Amino acid sequence: DDMLARESDVAARPVTLRMETAGGRACTMAKGGRCRPMKTTSRPCRFGTTSRLHQKKQKRSLRALRTDEEQVTGTGTGGSGRVSDLSARMREAQSAAMEEDERVRALMQNLRGQNLSNADFAEDDVEMRLVEIESIASPRQNGAAGSSGSGAGQGDAMDPDDMLPLVYDPAAIAAYWGVRPVSLLTRITQLTTLASGFLQGVLGDLVSDKVMKVELTERERDARDVKRAAQLRQVLTRLGPAYIKLGQALSIRPDLLSPVAMVELQKLCDKVPSFDSKVAYEAICDQLGISSVYDVFEDITPEPVAAASLGQVYIAHLKERDPKTNKRVKVAVKVQRPFVLETVTIDLFIVRSVGKVVGSWFPNLKRRVDIVALLDEWAARFFEELDYVKELEHTERFAESMAEELPQVIVPKSYREYTSRKVLVSEWIEGEKLAQSTASDVGDLVNLGVICYLKQLLDTGFFHADPHPGNMIRTPDGRLAILDFGLMAEIDNEIKYGMVEAISHLIHRDYEAIVQDFVTLEFIPPGTNLSPILPVLSKVFDQALEGGGAKAINFQELAADLAQITFDYPFRIPPYFALIIRAIGVLEGIALVGDPDFAIVDEAYPYLSKMLLTDPSPRLRESLKYTIYGKEGVFDVDKVIDILQAFGTYSVNSTSSNGAQQPVGPAKGTGGETLKLLAGPDAGYFRDLMIDEVVKSIDALSRSQILALLNALGLRNAFVPVLVPGAMRPFLPLQPMTSEDERVVKNIVKVVNFLSSSEVVTQAQGDGLVVPNPRALQKAASGVNPDVVRDVLPLLPSLANEVVPKVTSKLVNRIAARAVRSLFV
User: Fold this and answer.
1) Which positions are catalytic?
2) Residue 432 pairs with which residues in a beta bridge?
3) CA torsion angle for 517, 519, 520, 522 (degrees, to 10)?
4) Contact by Cβ (8 Å): 636, 628
């Protein structure tokens, strides 16, 4: 109340502060009112008060309190572009939208993987139809006499795998199945029989909507969509692996399906009944060239431990021992299901043919969604899942990319000598699914997972494209294991750097640049007229990111605006981005179980700051400069501190990722690591950007201190004699401080206090004199981490040789230029 009374000159709008009292209750302070108890809505942290996640939650609460205090005292930045502020507003808007709109809530649940099935086996009533080799007639029986062929008839000794392409090739697939009309007719009959109930329902809906003009409420329409989606899910499960995988791919495409349909398709279970183990053992022997599975394995489970549409998994022990420990080696043996290649290729041929017909009949639809192009892009990745040698190569490549920077991320070792296109033998990793774990370090592992995915997306460009919660395991020793590398995707530098640039533009609310980023990131085709899109997108972002809370946002109006944009312009979600959304969404879904305040932006920005500060790429250096200076080219010290703070957070997180479990103190975790960065070779470009600001700071601070001292001595109007021949004035007054100079001095105070992690200097009221705070200096000195000193000291000589001459030269030039202007202009 006393604080609020002192701030009686603040604008009269009502402001509420919410803080915890000593008794654990919350209180609300309204301007001019009395403190009153308020029921707290906070929940106990499931991970304990000593976990890093609990500490992060406390920091977020303090940050929110500081923001409210700034609003009361008038010290806030209003429309600040600080990442923490943007993140809080985005989280608030998202939460409000989920509360108000059931469809938004369903969409977010889908993206977070909350409807995914974690079963290891199919339900009892599930069956799957495959195209078995015995059911395929030879080309002669199909009326293709004289075809060189592929004799795939019963009793034919030729392996049809030799005829079908082992990489996705639409032309080769069409050539193979195009001469087998009986086989095609058989499969089409299967498809139409299994899908007849669903197709009749869809036809009835069309008649009801278009012919009979029956009006349905939104609730009734959603209920009908759920029913149809459930029917489709059951049909896809029975049709086999291609349709199961296609349905799962569609379940993360909000641009193609409604949220309620996505909910049902995410329930689409890839687990189907297992096939006979005798057949699996024969496949192992055939693929590995052995006479018995016991030639390689000491033992193997008689039944699979998991069965999916493409294959099933057994647990075994290799006959060979671990050369390091001489212990038994426990492995997972994945065996591909028979007739998968035949079934997948014939289904792709049928779906692609239908897509071409639809595209020719509905050209407007093709311009918005090219079904054939989407299918081809998806099928190319899907085909890689059919080749277990490719999966082994993906696993090894991924492990190599993570080994140095993130050794706490582990992947199963694969055994190349026991792997073929249809059999994969890899290390069995013990542990529990991360999504189901209640261990105290789950929050840290989720954060590690975020760093891992960001490294894949923004660094290597090679990322795990099947981010199922079951593919992330917490090991008994507290590490994060990632499994199943059959489905991977790659993005090029244009996309990687485009994502970083888009984030920089969002921080500065440069909506013109953001619209152009949509083109770079392939959301909008090149050549599209962007000018009509800009006003609506600006409105959307402004309302979502502006202060004032989520109540100020009209979500129905925003939804209508976005719907109109997507209807009027060729917006599309690129396939790679749908996979990215899913990957990050699944991690967010796991994190939110233990931390309802988790925000992916807060966790992602530290890694992004590390890239901006250390990556030598010209485009990322431009992004760093833009982040600091903005579109207008004005130095923003808050952005600098934001980036450096985020880098300190990354340093702490990466320390944990490298296996260091000891507590990390503030000096080491933030300012200390920042000093090491600033003195090191990786920050050369950042130092160059800062040198100009250092020169301005020295110039402004020295003049500020001189003027403050003269003012204290009563010499405010002192003049300096000019002894230069030809000067226009015999005496010059001391140059007064400009508003720019005052801003620079304030920036100095902010940066020095940030680097020291305490208020070691302060700016006196009135004369503006900058004075040290002895108590804070003593505290900062006593808190210096010896490890940081040891790491930084060897870098100082080379740093001084680099920086001091540049600073001296620029400072002399600046002072000389000002003197010349004063004397002769």
Assistant:
1) 466
2) 474
3) 120
4) yes
